[in-house]
Amino acid sequence: MTAALTYADYLNVDALLGLQETRTPDSASRSVIQAEHFFIVTHQACELWLKQVTIDLDAAAEAMVPPYGPEDDELALEFLDRTVELLRVLHGQVVALEKLPLRHFAEFRPYLDGASGAQSAQFRLLARLLGGDRQEGRLYGAFERLAEHRGVTVAEVCAQGPGAGVLNRIADSLLDVANGYWRWKMTHLALVSKMVGNRGGTGGSSGVDHLASRVTMPFPELRRLRAQVHEKLLSEG
């Protein structure tokens, strides 16, 4: 008879809890080793949440391109709204890292060698989905196609506001995603600046300068169209 599936088996808890391999020598103080463990857990958790974020944003984009189902626009909105909450979780991970003592970080940091968060493949995937200040990503392109399928432009969606129904709610959610992404990256930038100042980063990056160059605000076209509506309302008022 097959044994019943347990919580630990379903989540592979033993394997999961065995993935934290600190590099600090055993001769270091217990506090430093525990600090590195905290550092590893936080970054591993971020990678797990990033996996879910990219899965959800990819699904949202898929729901907004043909062939369309009768509820695909609402489905896209559900994925986007969940991403907004997950970005708050990622932001919280960075806030938690503020409790990493500087003296402990300075002691174990040399053992990171060439490892750097800048090497995260999932972050690069997220950047392609969202785009940046000057270039739209896949997600916005999918929204444009959905609006076109509904017989309107994104500019008309912005002008109609709530009258555009679910398309307006998707536009709002896209901006919420963008703002959550920006807040997460800015908080990380502030943390790194606090911890290492202007020192170079691990992995050969320029540290704070490198991070600052990657803090972008997605969906510039949507923001521009919203700004036009704002200006029009001001002039009419």
UniProtKB/TrEMBL annotation:
Signal peptide: none
Top-level taxonomic group: Bacteria
InterPro entries to which the protein is assigned, alphabetical: Trp/Indoleamine_2_3_dOase-like, Trp_2_3_dOase
Pfam families in UniProt: Trp_dioxygenase
Coiled-coil segments on the chain, per record: none
Protein name according to UniProt: Tryptophan 2,3-dioxygenase family protein
